[in-house]
Amino acid sequence: MRYISNPPDAASLMMSARSFGNYDLAGALADLIDNSIKAKAKVIRLQCLFNDGDPKIRIADNGTGMSLDELCKAMRPASQNPCEERAPDDMGRFGWGMKSASFSQCRFLTVLTRKKGQYSGASWDLDSLDNWNMGIFGDVEVKAECSKELLDSDGTEIIWRRCDRLSEGKTLNNEQFNELIIHARNKLALIYHRFINGEVKSKKLTIELNGIPVPDYDPFHRKHEATMQLECEPLKMGGRKKIRVQPYILPHYSKLKPADLDKLSGDEGLLKNQGFYVYRNNRLIIYGTWFRLLKHGDLSQLVRISVDIPNSLDEIWKITVDKSDAQLPSILRTRLRQIVDGLKRRSAKVFRSKGGKVSEHGKVSVWTRYVKNGEIRYEINRSHPLLTALFTDASPDLESKLDGALQVIEREFPVNMFGDDFSKGVERINQAEANPEHFMDFLSASLPGVLSECNGKLNLMAERIRNVEPFSSNWTLVEDFLTKEGWTNVNS
Ligand SMILES: Nc1ncnc2c1ncn2[C@@H]1O[C@H](COP(=O)(O)OP(=O)(O)O)[C@@H](O)[C@H]1O
Ligand SMILES: [Mg+2]
User: Fold this and answer.
1) What InterPro entries does the entry give (predicted)?
2) 206-209 and 43-49: which strand pairing?
3) Is pLDDT at 228 greater than 80 in this prediction?
4) Residue 274 region by backbone torsions, left for phi larger than 0, else alpha for psi between -120 and 50, else beta
5) FRET label pair with 369: which of 67, 136, 278, 444, CA 20 to 30 Å apart?
6) Confidence class of residue 326 from pLDDT cuts 50, 70 and 90?
7) Who has greater pLDDT, 97 or 156?
């Protein structure tokens, strides 16, 4: 046997690298931001210029920069073997990130960098790749092209030109370009929210887009008092490698400002955005999926679960080049299934407990339970005899006032407090009147109204209230009351 060198064709390989992964603009920018974070950058400036229909995008950081050697290595496709274990804070993968992310959007990539005051620059032009020839910039050329920030301090700037794939190959007008940029900004606000808000220690990050800081957007809206944080489940995989699973329930829409609701709903709505939010090294890599463990709508659309994985578990997660997808390893699948099943049971139980009476066969209850899209809502039953008595009694104006009052009572039902009490022990909750004397007072206040509704016919009244709460479960007391009042022939 003899061996010949059989290298890939440069142009074909680079062209196919354009389709590695499944990048959109935000995803591609995020891959470069990951590199900047790894290079200890604290500020990242994105500049997206429409440039009369020939967009130009610059991603500049104030990280450590690269030497010429490091730059040449970095520009090389597949610059690092994916099997090598990486530092825990490393967000890269496969040594393809910068190249495949950039070429997913543009045909001409320039990298300018400064390390310890030394400038280097290099570029790949997909339209001129003969023999893997890469352009190298001299000191003067770098200084002529870089931003003033790089003239002042170390860092790296990446420039995309000939951006032919910003929007699935469509030519964009100025307005569409701006929309695309706003969409990308919102996604970056979500992907890096933990870095932007400073909760990742010593890694507080400022991302600017066209001179304006990108805000942090917390998908769990943890600052809101009505967000419920359920128990956290730490899972161990492969010895010390820990995965953290933390379920949240978002505040009900009635408790949110319209702008916050818009943000939480995103373009696709709350239901599509429920599910797992998977973080790798604090960077959100995939979100709004149940990994086929549940269907969207099986649980309330307000349920979101954060899952934190260290990058040392990449192998078992099968992270793709653009990090936008990860397959669940089977051990974790089993555990996550238990967690979502627990949540399902829990929500079913909450609504069965006191609400058991709600749907008990043949009884008229005070509360009505509605289920839609896996979400449960309780309303006061307006056809309850005590209420119909009030409604029919009321003038038209009073009727709407009454209904308004009931709506307020329904909306202000203390769901979170109730959920919390319930989780601490359902037996502690008792809504029934403990004091028989108070119940008798209630009967003397309410029954005359019902009796007059029944045109003073005792039998009719008894028939009406016998299966109606709260009379039916306190029937002996009702009978006592009726006897006391001399209304004795209720059984006849
Ligand atoms: N902004 C940057 N600052 C400093 N070094 C960088 C920067 N971007 C890329 N590099 C270097 O280039 C290498 C290759 O990056 P990349 O192509 O994204 O592959 P990966 O991140 O998967 O290793 C990185 O490992 C890093 O050493
Ligand atoms: Mg990278």
Assistant:
1) HATPase_C_sf
2) parallel
3) yes
4) beta
5) 444
6) low
7) 156
User: Could you identify the residue written with the tokens 């149940």?
Assistant: 290
- CA–centroid distance, 12 to ligand 1, in Å, is 23
Q: Given this model, what pLDDT does residue 156 score?
A: 98
Query: Which atom of ligand 1 is closest in space to residue 96's alpha carbon?
Result: 17
Q: What is the amino acid identity at position 219?
A: P
- For ligand 1, whether the C-beta of 35 sits within 6 Å is yes
Three-class secondary structure assignment of 206-233: EEEECCEECCCCCCCCCCCCCCEECCCE
Gap between the Cα atoms of 249 and 418, Å rounded: 14
CB-CB contact of 469 with 357 (8 Å) = yes
Separation of CA 281 and ligand 1 centre (Å): 16
The residue with tokens 């570029």 is 123
Domain boundaries, the chain: 10-213, 228-346, 353-431, 432-492
- pLDDT digits 0-9 by tens, 154-208: 999 999 999 999 987 678 899 999 999 999 999 999 999 999 999 998 899 999 9
Enumerate residues with CB within 5 Å of ligand 2 (an ion).
35, 92, 97
Ligand 1 pocket, 470 CB below 6 A? no
What is the assigned CATH class of domain 10-213?
Answer: alpha beta
Asked if pLDDT for residue 445 goes beyond 60, the answer is yes
Ligand 1 close to Cβ of residue 61 (< 6 A):
yes
> Looking at the domain 228-346, which fold is it?
Ribosomal Protein S5; domain 2 (3.30.230)
Question: CA 161, CA 178: separation in Å to the nearest integer?
Answer: 17
Q: What is the mean pLDDT of residues 248-253?
A: 84
Contact assessment for residue 41 and residue 105, using Cβ atoms and an 8 Å cutoff: no
Binding site membership of 66 for ligand 1 (Cβ less than 6 Å): yes
Number of neighbours of residue 452 by Cβ within 10 angstroms? 12
191 lines ligand 1 (CB under 6 A): no
pLDDT per position as a tens digit, 418-441 = 777 777 666 677 776 667 788 888
